[in-house]
Design goal:
mainly alpha; 55% helix; WH-like_DNA-bd_sf; 144 residues; WH_DNA-bd_sf; two-stranded antiparallel sheet; Arc Repressor Mutant, subunit A; 7 helices
Length: 144
């Protein structure tokens, strides 16, 4: 459903959020290692998230990526998706056709309209804090 970059971005943000709740800043290498992603690709994704002001970073020996705990409830998953993948997930054809639209629909068009609407609503109302709390409580997992 999401691009690999977007999946990595969400995982990275979850790891950063949890570490930030403990007052820590984390380096790219640590994030990549803990979430099981390539370091160079993770750095590129985090750079996009910084550029879109989804996460903060500080350079230097005591630097790293962080997300103030007070801001975690405000950062919605839709912001991560938009920063990395744009809004194509809400507009693209379910079958990947380029000419699919309301006037010339693919066989799945009408079903996907509802699904995309529900997905957008869920992403816009779910915060990074919501997901991080699930991980910390043990109700969810990030890696097996």
């Amino acid at each position: 459903m999401f691009s690999k970059a977007c999946e990595y971005g969400i995982k990275a943000m979850l790891y950063v959020a949890i570490q930030s709740q403990q007052g820590k800043r984390v380096k790219t290498g640590e994030i990549a290692e803990k979430i099981g992603t390539p370091e160079a690709f993770t750095a590129k994704i985090l750079g996009e998230l910084v550029k879109h002001e989804v996460v903060e970073s500080l350079k230097g020996p005591y630097g790293g990526f962080y997300l103030e705990p007070s801001k975690q409830a405000k950062v919605k998953i839709s912001e991560i998706v938009n920063a990395i993948d744009g809004d194509s997930i809400y507009k693209g054809c379910g079958l990947g056709l380029s000419a699919c639209n309301a006037s010339e629909p693919c066989p799945m068009h009408d079903k996907f309209v509802l699904i995309r609407s529900q997905l957008k609503s869920m992403l816009e109302t779910t915060s990074i804090k919501d997901l991080a709390e699930g991980l910390v409580s043990g109700k969810a997992i990030l890696l097996r």
